[in-house]
Design brief:
Number of strands: 21
Strand content: 25-35%
Shape: globular
Number of helices: 11
Distance between the termini: 35 Å
Strand order of the largest sheet: 6-5-4-1-7-12-13-14
Helix content: 25-40%
Length: about 500
């Protein structure tokens, strides 16, 4: 009986590995790419802020850029991936699922579990959530404004078009990868003498003692070339969300618009597809924490805006490595793609956080502004999560891990603090590891233990679904999935 049970367990494990990790062999890779404008033609509410902002006309277009990849054994598909980068604040609940349902009959030969939506985290893109979703409250005019549901339908139509174009235009192609640097993101959590931390806290305060965490200035790049060595697309992985103009009141793709425009100009290639992938950057942003005057002086001396300066730095990093990339195009390489569902333990609510929430609720109940109403919802949620801790379910997330030659790509739905990304990159057996946050869903901030200890926004429980325990599970499972692919 024991032998039978053991054999059954072994069989199940082998079956699981067969389903999740499909064997791959080195071979040619077919690639397609396309981009599309996802800017609405009507006024729309903007996401990424507690207040209601109505954009009546765009400051820049916002786009979705699609990359389709497939390897075959003869005529039989072996591995597939379709990654679409969107100028949105996040991929909200249900958006990816609705998109997959719409896309399935249009691409019957595509496995929908291999479709990935990602967001650049611009805070000046349309609202895609319910008006009274659990964590936010928005008051919109009843007339003259495109409602979130209507924009989502518009968005899904556009995403379907760009996905079909990329998938149906795939052809044998080459890939190369490079590493460069650009100082764009800066740790945004100031730490003070009493141990407190504060997002965007003042650094000229006499009690200021430093910034809380590490900074990652790497620019990881994937170049995709046709058979004539003509560059078709670039995926740029940068540990910084696109929120330099986050308080604006008009649709704006933020610094990614400048990156695209400057690269197209410098490379004299108007049809170049540029995908913006945000790396692990929960505690990093483009906002300056110090040297503001000196940075401003240099930007002004160049005759640029801050957004243009960021675009200059990123595009220069690309141009700096494009010739090494052109000299090392791989046409025969291994491509693998695994998809897993992970369950992460929920963020633990500390007693002091519970007591603080109880103290804040009475005052918030007397206020009617958007911020106070949103915070009231969040404070009540903190109380519930503490009092019913044993009933809080784990956070379910979709993890994608890809191998393309010597590099790995791993996704997560969070604003993932840099320490977790650093752990994954350091332990990955890939030559280079790309991490894409804001993928598939919106998992809020995933903070470190010291961020929770320091408190404030991004460390507060209102802004976390998963906590450090979940972060470590994510690290371990991501590393395991990456390294499993590099055993092949």
């Amino acid at each position: 009986m024991k032998i039978f049970i053991i054999r059954s367990i072994v069989f199940c494990l082998l079956f699981y590995l067969f389903i999740i990790i499909q064997p791959s062999v080195a071979g040619s890779l077919s690639i397609g790419c396309s981009s599309i404008d996802i800017t609405p033609s009507r006024p729309v509410a903007l996401a990424g802020n507690f207040s209601t902002r109505i954009s009546k006309e765009p400051e820049t277009p916002i786009i979705a850029a699609a990359l389709a990849l497939e390897s075959k054994d003869g005529d039989k598909p072996v591995q597939q991936a379709l990654i679409i980068s969107c100028d949105l604040v996040a991929i909200r609940d249900g958006v990816q699922e609705k998109f997959r349902s719409k896309l399935q009959p249009l691409l019957p030969d595509m496995d929908m579990q291999n479709v990935i939506l990602t967001a650049t985290h611009t805070h000046t893109a349309p609202l895609t959530m319910e008006l009274h979703e659990k964590r936010y409250v928005y008051d919109l005019p009843q007339e003259g404004v495109m409602m979130p549901d209507d924009y989502v339908e518009f968005l899904i139509e556009k995403l379907s078009t760009v996905a079909v174009n990329a998938w149906k235009n795939r052809k044998p192609a080459g890939v190369s990868w490079t590493l460069g640097y650009a100082v764009v993101g800066q740790n945004r959590r100031a730490v003070y003498a009493d141990g407190r931390a504060k997002m965007y806290g003042k650094s000229d305060d006499p009690q200021f003692r430093g910034l809380e965490g590490y900074e990652d200035h790497a620019v990881e790049m994937l170049f995709f070339w046709d058979n004539t060595k003509q560059l078709k697309a670039i995926a740029i992985n940068l540990a910084c969300p696109a929120q330099e103009v986050e308080s604006g009141r008009r649709i704006n793709a933020d610094f990614w618009h400048e990156v695209r425009q400057q690269l197209k100009s410098k490379l004299n290639q108007e049809d170049l597809v540029v995908l913006g992938w945000t790396g692990a950057a929960g505690d990093q942003s483009p906002h300056l924490m110090y040297r503001k005057t000196a940075e401003g002086r240099m930007t002004k001396a160049r005759g640029l805006t801050r957004v243009q300066e960021i675009g200059r730095r990123i595009s220069n990093a690309v141009i700096d490595t494009i010739e090494p990339a052109r000299a090392d195009i791989r046409n025969n390489l291994l491509f693998a793609h695994t998809v897993r569902q992970l369950q992460l333990p929920p963020r633990k609510i500390l007693k002091r956080e519970y007591e603080e929430a109880l103290k804040n609720i009475p005052a918030l109940e007397k206020k009617t502004d958007n911020y106070s109403r949103s915070m009231l919802i969040r404070e009540k949620d903190v109380v519930h999560r503490y009092e019913d801790a044993q009933k809080i379910p784990p956070y379910n997330m979709e993890l994608h891990v890809l191998r393309i030659g010597d590099i790995a790509i791993a996704t997560n739905p969070f604003e993932l603090f840099i320490d977790y990304g650093t752990q994954i990159k350091a332990r990955s057996q890939a030559v280079q590891t790309f991490i894409i946050q804001h993928a598939c869903n919106a998992g809020l901030y995933l903070p470190t233990p010291r961020a929770i200890e320091g408190g404030h926004y991004s460390g507060w429980p209102h802004t976390n679904i998963a906590g450090p325990e979940g972060g470590q599970v994510l690290v371990e499972e991501t590393v395991k999935s990456i390294n499993e692919l590099f055993k092949q």
